[in-house]
Design a protein that fits this description.
Rossmann fold; alpha/beta; globular
């Protein structure tokens, strides 16, 4: 048995209007993400990219704005009720839980028994090539294997929105190209609204349809990579597009 593919029901649109201040740093951005059309948020260090994702996920509170998924306003909900899946840059697996129990976590959070949650995790382990690793602890995994576990755990929760925070940064350079292609296939299969935070033009090209450029906490440009290349709005965009891909 394998998990069902993307739902035949229409996935909802993510509509984010986010304003957050944390100490001396602030970020303000408004954007929509249509299902099946991933958005990459790209920008220099300190631009506010990860804070933007954390605000959508409910890990930081908004100072102003709204976050909606379809007809649901989620910015006042706790993270576990938002139906948002997150894959963090260092994967953040539960170190004391096996691969199987990490993936089963979503079902446990919904109130299932340990046995039922483990059974529900089985198809996800098969889909992501993790069945042979099911009894290993996270410390026994390679970076690519840990990324698969983190993605399976996020999608096993059946989210409406998937957030990817620098998903390639913890991987060795020599494995990134293969993992990037694999992750791109999984994102397309998910089919919902996906937001990717990255420094990498190669990640944006492989994983996203459009790019939102964030600099100093503000949006400076949005479009496809081709549109950005045709008319770069800032020196950062010009440098980013001129740099070799990784």
């Amino acid at each position: 048995m394998t998990p069902a593919g993307p739902s035949t029901a229409a996935h909802p649109v993510l509509r984010a209007d986010v304003a957050v201040t944390r100490g001396a740093h602030s970020v303000a951005a408004a954007f929509d993400v249509a299902p099946g059309h991933p958005l990459a948020v790209i920008g220099p260090n300190g631009a506010g990219k990860s804070t933007l994702l954390a605000a959508i996920a409910g890990l930081v509170s908004l100072d102003a704005g709204r976050v909606r998924i379809g007809d649901r306003t989620i910015d006042t909900l706790p993270p576990e009720r938002r139906r948002v899946g997150v894959v963090f840059q260092d994967h953040v697996l539960f170190p004391h839980l096996s691969v199987r129990d990490n993936v089963a976590f979503a079902a446990r959070m919904r109130g299932g028994s340990r046995a039922a949650a483990r059974a529900a995790a089985g198809p996800w382990l098969e889909r992501y090539g993790l069945a042979a690793l099911a009894d290993r602890l996270p410390g026994e995994l390679s970076g690519g294997q840990a990324q698969r576990v983190a993605l399976a755990r996020a999608l096993a929760a059946e989210p409406d929105v998937l957030l990817l925070d620098e998903p390639m940064s913890a991987l060795d350079v020599e494995v990134r190209a293969g993992m990037r292609a694999e992750l791109a296939a999984h994102v397309r299969e998910f089919g919902g609204a996906t937001v990717l935070v990255t420094h990498s033009r190669a990640d944006a090209a492989a994983l996203a349809d459009t790019v939102l450029v964030l600099e100093d906490g503000a949006v400076t440009q949005r479009g496809t990579l081709a549109e950005l290349a045709a008319e770069p709005a800032t020196p950062y965009v010009r440098r980013m597009l001129a740099a070799p891909g990784d």
